[in-house]
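Researcher: Structure for this, please.
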Amino acid sequence: MTPQIFTYVILIVSVLYVVYSIYPIFKAKKNNQEIVVKPIRIVAAVIVMILAIYAIATGNTYDSIIDAINTKYGR
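Model: Predicted structure, token format:
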């Protein structure tokens, strides 16, 4: 799998996870039900989604963006 396709797969999976996580919240709110929300997972998925969108918009790959972040912060 090429790195560009990998970037698109990461974007699709993160979008699906965010939708899968947020849809029940709105559905429960509409039906006046309670639901347990795990906001850290949703925030992490949104960050991954933003990184993938940035990688696609700049013409880079997701791996190169992550490598640049690791290099910048000394890991």
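Researcher: Any notable elements?
Model: The chain has a mean pLDDT of 91. Helices lie at 3-30, 39-58, 62-72.
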